[in-house]
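Today's session is about reading a structure prediction critically. Students often jump straight to the picture, but the first step is always the sequence itself: look for stretches that repeat, for charged clusters, for runs of hydrophobic residues. Only then move on to the predicted structure, which in these notes is written as discrete structure tokens rather than atom positions. Here is the chain we will use throughout the hour.
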Amino acid sequence: MTDADAAPCSVGVVVVAAGSGSRLGAGRPKAFVRLRDRPLLAYAVATVARLPHVVSLVVVAPEGHADPLDRADPLWAGITLPEGAVVVAGGAERTDSVAAGLAAIDPGCDVVLVHDAARCLTPLGVFERVVAALQGGATGAVPGLPLVDTVKTVDAQGRITGTPDRALLRAVQTPQGFEREALLTAYGSGLQATDDAALVERCGHPVVVVEGDPLAFKVTTPDDLARAELLLDRTATLRA
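Below is the predicted structure for this chain, in token form.
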């Protein structure tokens, strides 16, 4: 039987939306900053809702803002969650927030994707490539882009210690997808990391890189938000 003949994976998705967004300087958690007339989180959730075979969606929100039905909380205005979606409160670090999301994922999921809400314009095709890699037998898969700049390693004094071959380097994005049990084991290890793949790698599981997309950039600064607005305008023009 070929990979194409295999039964589809049942997919769980954790959307991480608990970051403070201090560098964005918008006075509210980053995932709830508005891009045009909707929060960043709304765009991310809308894309996840179009992904086939999703049986469980968990949104990890900031502490104190984990009730989307609270009409007194203006952060949730403009966000429509798919039926059955669950919202949980995040923790102090990203690792803590993802762990909280994993605890709420349907245990029947074969694979779990972890996605940063701040990568709000990530195309559906990126999600599909990650799922396809897992469907094909990968334990973990992350989207990535080749680097265009030369990269240097430096010491504590800023002196250059090496020049890695950029052909072997990738800038990774989200969603990052994994077999559910492998991801649970990684998060039960007590380690901390800046992305999920690093935890899974440290537990001895191979992770592959699939093609990312420039649109999957992370909105972190006001310049990033302005860039996202321009890209929305350009997309609307192309569709007109």
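Discussion point for the tutorial: The longest helix spans residues 222-239.
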